[in-house]
Specification:
The complex is a heterodimer of chains A (784) and B (269). Chain A is α+β, with helices and mostly antiparallel strands. Helices cover 29% and strands 23% of the residues of chain A. Chain A has three domains: 153 residues, Aldehyde oxidase/xanthine dehydrogenase, molybdopterin binding domain (Aldehyde Oxidoreductase, domain 4); 194 residues, Aldehyde oxidase/xanthine dehydrogenase, a/b hammerhead (Aldehyde Oxidoreductase, domain 3, Alpha-Beta Complex); 322 residues, Aldehyde Oxidoreductase, domain 4. In chain A, the strands form seven sheets. A seven-stranded mixed beta sheet of chain A has the order 3-5-1-12-9-10-11, sandwiched between helices. In chain A, strands 7-15-14-13-8 form a five-stranded mixed beta sheet, with helices on both faces. A four-stranded mixed beta sheet of chain A has the order 18-26-27-28, with helices on both faces. In chain A, helix 19 links the parallel strand 27 and strand 28. Chain B has three domains: 47 residues, 2-Layer Sandwich (Uridine Diphospho-n-acetylenolpyruvylglucosamine Reductase, domain 2), CATH 3.30.43; 112 residues, Uridine Diphospho-n-acetylenolpyruvylglucosamine Reductase, domain 3, CATH 3.30.465.10; 94 residues, Enolase-like, domain 1. Chain B has twelve helices and 14 strands. Chain B is globular and about 55 Å long. The chains are: A alpha+beta (784), B alpha+beta (269). Chains A and B meet through helix 4 and helix 21 of A and helix 12 of B. The complex binds flavin-adenine dinucleotide. The site of flavin-adenine dinucleotide has 30 residues of chain B, from strand 2, helix 2, helix 6 and helix 7.
Chain lengths: 784, 269
């Protein structure tokens, strides 16, 4: 019998032929007969009082169905926007948020009115006719100034702009470490605000059927069940009256996790106007309104001994929350808990401060908190090395948590499940040719050229998550995962998952797991997701690199239950004891007599028949939930090689090596794809991307793809990838997440390379994005 | 990003286009490759009442050399210019520049006439047209490039005037265009063109002011025998570029000097 092993194989992505040939179904591919189109009128000002809204001309414009403002939604939508406690349970001040502004606008892009018309063009035309009179108020744009007592407030009437101020561990925790120190290095490290820019912007199509009181929502979401939960609650409907369908989704990067104002308003409009309503976000709306990532700065101090032993850290995160508290915004405070990175510390003092400003809210963006932690600790370790004239490799090796020390309880009580940090570092150094590069660097320096090598030995916590850790953080719902495996009479296998694929390739990888377990053809297995009307009662969505490490395990367990039932039935069919049944290669046979066998398909068919063991119900299907005992802890080493043009300050990425360890690998091609995308996003943050607002007026200056600097393939060298495999002891598949790893690792590698290149000029730290203009100015100043 | 409603008409000859333009009046616009006009319309920064599509006027898509001059029809696409053996032979610098405009999509659609008429400060052809004393030919007259570019997005074209071709001198001596940009498909942050012609250098700068700039001080210094690195120091003489998200005015002036030096040096290699 031909035995194939699909887990670990480079199976081509099943979704690709469909997507590449234009057969995907994205949100704008859906419509409903009689649909009207919505265009939102948004505040052009960052902060203002609304004096009046005149809709007279708009209401009379061709094709207009209706024009609506806040009052029209008052009886339709209840409650305020959710703000989950995440990692900061006690928030001082959470501004109330109704999906549409009534009296005050607090960021450019906030919705003040909506036009419904027969066509998208007519809705857009009419929206231009709405006259809103504003009284402009001072915009709070600078996080540091916003914390001062005399600062204007992001919301009129608020006591201050502090959303939270939480000390995880006070200074006393690191006092001893700092007393022992031979050196202390200090730095302020910025995290530039970035826009997620998924290839497909958001969109909502809602149809409320008044007679049946049923609401169907098609939308581009990472998280359809949570949307159902939030929207049904707000609209006064039972969860069962709402169906959310999230079809093919063209990327999310975190920005499609939380519910948005439009997600409430479009369904409410459908109920008000008694017809289906469709809204598709424009690119500018997307850059302006989709939650942003990062937007933080850190004040950090690190204490170390002369020999490079790291002792203590004191860090404060200042996070630009934006004008409202993003649903999972406070999750980003996990940067504090991860600030120690791959190293051992005597004490870490950590505090997080969330500050309200008149910008669009920030929320988790690929990596959320963990890229910031890596960036901070990897920068600081390099600064210590520079101070002590140590090689950055040496200082890392000296302080790594060692393989025999796992499971390792780190400074905040989190248990790092596994790791072998030297192994990944060794491999990366070998791939990049470290020794040679250092020689080349010395040579080039003599010629006045600036070559830099940047190392990032990153670690990550992901796979959210254990109920004990996640239920309190979401306000009650544990982020476990569910799965259902159904086998039809003719042996087709349907796998339902509560995670959502929007680029991760679940349709390929999850069936790989099931195919191996069931020993049936891969092609007989189909993955379904993204529709709340199908599968288990709740799904928890995709973010935080959780789909495989939590959802994949649930699938595997549901498959196990199917096999268990199959064994019972096979035993009955083969007239043997259940204990004597062996399941191998898709066939049940009696131990010791391989010819006394029933194929999986035969058993499946029989399960729908009449000859079942006593008490057995018909059918072959199972549901499983997986509540992981711990988070999972991927790690790796990324190395960037950058040369900076001495005359123009242009930093060119010459080489990029990534060695990642995500435990057992289901599909190496998909893992490589995730690293590619993730690393490029981190590289982009380091060199190119930044959401820029006018610091006085709060006007967005980067509202198009020309101004918002997403790099293209032309700027990125071929990435050199490899893996080490340290299986996770946390789950039986031995897997960890890989979706965010690239982003978590990359910015530190690139910026460390730039700082290394410029160190002969006495430049120690460079903030992101490292644009040529910025570097040229710094080099010029340093040269003086 | 839905443009405001507009009338649309398709022209098969320059004559017909010109009649359509006068019929629709002042708010009508010519539509060539659409790669500048349509983005502006989608952002509603431009709201023409009517578009006169000239893509069907075959005679405007044409490259020829006549009487020592290189004629580029207004509708010639960047990709055609980039690959034309006539251009590569008679004015290789132009082929080089065309190959660096935007990305494949832009080069497949955008046209010579569109870039010239649009007069974006970061447009690449206007620099070459100015420094080589090219002529812009319209359905009504011939305009010297130095009289053509008036200000940012402003030319001396009248409302119903259609660019039919741009006429460049033949020049195939040492040349180089250096376009400093951060992304492969981007416009120039600063661009510098250097062309040796009749024994002297012509130097043009892109995106250092509202219109293209001819760096005459550099040309003169070179004429007097200055080394490239010395002459290049004059590249920023009299410049007053505005800053943007990519570059401060100071940095743009610095780039003008550095890139001018490099362009001349590389042209000579
Ligand atoms: C992503 C991107 C990157 C780009 N990068 C560059 C770059 O690096 N360098 C560069 O130079 N350009 C760049 N462009 C612009 C591109 O070259 C455009 O194609 C060009 O500016 C306009 O040419 P068009 O044929 O598309 O003109 P259209 O967009 O059709 O028209 C532009 C304007 O010119 C007028 N017009 C067009 N043809 C005529 C004519 N024959 N007579 C009178 N008026 C006319 C139109 O009425 C309109 O006002 C870029 C564009 C994009 C979208």
């Amino acid at each position: 019998m031909a035995v194939t092993q699909l887990v670990g194989a480079k199976v081509h992505r099943r979704e690709d032929p469909r997507l590449i040939t234009g057969h995907g179904h994205f949100i704008d591919d859906f419509t409903r007969t009689g649909a009207a189109y919505a265009t939102f009128v948004r505040s052009p000002l960052a902060h203002a009082r609304i004096k009046s809204i005149d809709v007279t001309d708009a209401a009379k414009a061709p094709g207009v169905v209706g024009v609506y403002t806040a009052r029209d939604f008052k009886g339709q939508l209840a409650g305020t926007h959710p703000a989950a406690p995440a990692f900061v349970a006690e928030k001082k001040y959470v501004p109330e948020r109704f999906p549409i502004a009534e009296k005050e606008v607090t960021y450019q892009g906030e919705i003040v009115a909506v036009v419904l018309a027969e066509s998208r063009g007519q809705a857009a035309d009419a929206a231009n006719l709405i006259q809103v009179e504003y009284d402009e108020l001072p915009a709070v744009m600078d996080v540091e100034k916003a914390m001062q007592s005399g600062s204007p407030k992001a919301h009129e009437g608020a006591a201050d702009n502090i959303c939270w101020d939480l000390t995880y561990t006070g200074p006393e925790v690191s006092d001893a470490a700092f007393k022992e120190a031979d050196v202390v290095v200090k730095e302020r490290i910025l995290q530039n605000r970035v826009a997620p820019v998924p290839m497909e912007p958001r969109g909502v199509l809602a149809e409320y059927e008044g007679f049946d009181k049923k609401l169907t929502i098609w939308m581009s979401s990472q998280n359809p069940h949570f949307i159902r939960l939030f929207v049904s609650g707000s609209m006064g409907l039972k969860e069962s009256q709402v169906r959310v369908i999230s079809p093919d989704v063209g990327g999310g990067f975190g920005s499609k996790i939380s519910p948005y104002p439009e997600d409430y308003l479009v369904p409410a409009l459908s109920r008000i106007a008694e017809r289906p309503v469709k809204w598709i976000e424009t690119r500018t709306e997307s850059i302006q309104n989709a939650t942003h990532g990062r937007g933080q700065y850190y004040d950090v101090e690190v204490a170390a001994k002369k020999d490079g032993t790291l002792l203590g850290m004191r860090m404060t995160q200042f996070l630009d929350v934006g004008a409202y508290v993003g649903t999972f915004s406070a999750f980003q405070a996990c940067a504090c808990l991860m600030a120690g990175g791959a190293y051992k510390w005597k004490g870490i003092s950590a505090r997080t401060v969330g500050v309200l400003t008149n910008r669009v809210p920030t929320d988790p963006y690929r990596g959320a908190g963990r890229p910031e932690a890596t960036h901070l600790v990897e920068r600081m370790v390099d600064l210590v090395a520079l101070e002590l004239k140590m090689d950055p490799v040496e200082i890392r090796r000296k302080n790594f948590i060692q393989p025999q020390e796992f499971p390792f309880t780190q400074n905040f009580g989190l248990v790092v499940d596994s790791g072998d940090y030297d192994k990944a570092l060794d491999r990366a150094l070998e791939l990049v040719g470290y020794e040679e590069l250092r020689k080349k660097q010395a040579e080039l320096r003599k010629q006045g050229r600036y070559l830099g090598i940047g190392i990032s030995t990153w670690i990550e916590l992901c796979g959210f998550g254990p109920s004990a850790a996640t239920a309190p953080a979401t306000g009650g719902i544990a982020l476990v995962e569910s799965a259902q495996v159904r086998v039809t009479p003719t042996g087709a296998v349907l796998v339902y998952t509560g995670t959502h694929s929007h680029g991760q390739g679940h349709e390929t990888t999850f069936p790989q797991i099931v195919a191996d377990q069931l020993g049936v053809p891969y092609d007989s297995i189909e993955l379904r997701h993204g529709d709340t009307a199908e599968g288990t009662s709740f799904g928890y969505g995709t973010y935080g690199s959780r789909s495989l490490a939590v959802g994949g395990v649930a699938i595997s367990r549901a498959t196990g239950k199917v096999i268990d039932k199959g064994k019972k039935l096979a035993a009955h069919m083969l007239e043997a004891a259940e204990e004597d049944i062996v399941f191998e290669h898709g066939s049940f046979h009696v131990k010791g007599s391989p010819d006394k066998a029933k194929a999986f398909g035969e058993v499946a068919f029989a399960s729908y028949g009449m000859n079942l063991p006593q008490g057995m119900e018909q059918g072959l299907e199972a549901v499983a939930y997986f509540d992981p005992p711990n988070l999972v802890w991927p790690f790796g080493t990324h190395i960037a090689v950058v040369e900076i043009d001495a005359e123009t300050g242009h930093a060119q990425l010459q080489k990029y090596v990534a060695v990642d360890d995500c435990g057992n690998i289901i599909n190496p091609m998909i893992v490589d794809g995730q690293i590619h995308g993730g690393a490029v996003q981190g590289i982009a943050q380091a060199l190119y991307e930044e959401v820029v607002y006018d610091e006085e007026t709060g006007q967005l200056k980067t509202g198009t793809m020309i101004d918002y600097m997403l790099p293209s393939i032309g700027e990125i060298p071929p990435l050199i990838l490899d893996h080490t495999v340290t299986p996770s002891p946390t789950n039986e598949l031995g897997v960890k997440g890989i979706g965010e790893a690239g982003t978590i690792a990359a910015s530190a590698a690139v910026i460390n390379a730039i700082c290394d290149a410029l160190s002969p000029l006495g430049i120690k730290h460079v903030d992101m994005p490292a644009s040529p203009d910025k570097l040229w100015h710094m080099m010029k100043e340093a040269g003086k | 990003m839905i443009p405001a409603a507009f009338e649309y008409a398709h022209a098969s000859s320059v004559d017909e286009a010109s009649k359509l333009l006068s019929k629709f009046g002042e708010d009508a616009k010519v539509l060539a490759g659409g790669h500048s006009l349509i983005p502006l319309m989608r952002l509603r920064l431009a709201q023409p009442a009517a578009l006169v599509d000239i893509n069907g006027i075959k005679e405007l898509d044409n490259i020829s050399e006549r009487g020592g001059k290189l004629h580029i029809g207004a509708l010639t696409r960047h990709v055609t210019i980039q690959n034309s053996s006539v251009v590569k032979d008679k004015l290789p610098l132009l082929a080089e520049i065309a190959g660096e405009v935007g990305d494949n999509q832009v080069r497949n659609m955008g046209t010579m006439g569109g870039v010239i008429a649009h007069a974006d400060a970061a447009g690449d052809y206007p620099t070459l047209a100015l420094m080589l004393d090219a002529d812009v030919v319209t359905n009504q007259r011939t305009i010297h490039a130095r009289d053509f570019f008036k200000d940012l997005f402003t030319t001396s074209l009248g409302p119903d005037e259609i660019v039919t071709e741009v006429v460049f001198p033949v020049a195939n001596g040492p040349h180089k265009y250096i376009k400093f940009r951060r992304r492969l498909f981007d416009w120039a942050i600063v661009g510098v063109a250097a062309q040796k012609m009749n024994g002297d250098w012509r130097i043009g700068l892109t995106n250092v002011g509202p219109t293209p700039v001819r760096a005459t001080a550099v040309e003169e210094a070179l004429h007097k025998g200055a080394k490239p690195e010395e002459a290049a120091l004059h590249a920023s003489d009299g410049l007053d570029p505005s800053g943007d998200l990519r570059a401060s005015p100071e940095y743009k002036k610095h780039l003008a000097r550095v890139l001018t030096k490099r362009a001349i040096q590389q042209a000579q290699q």
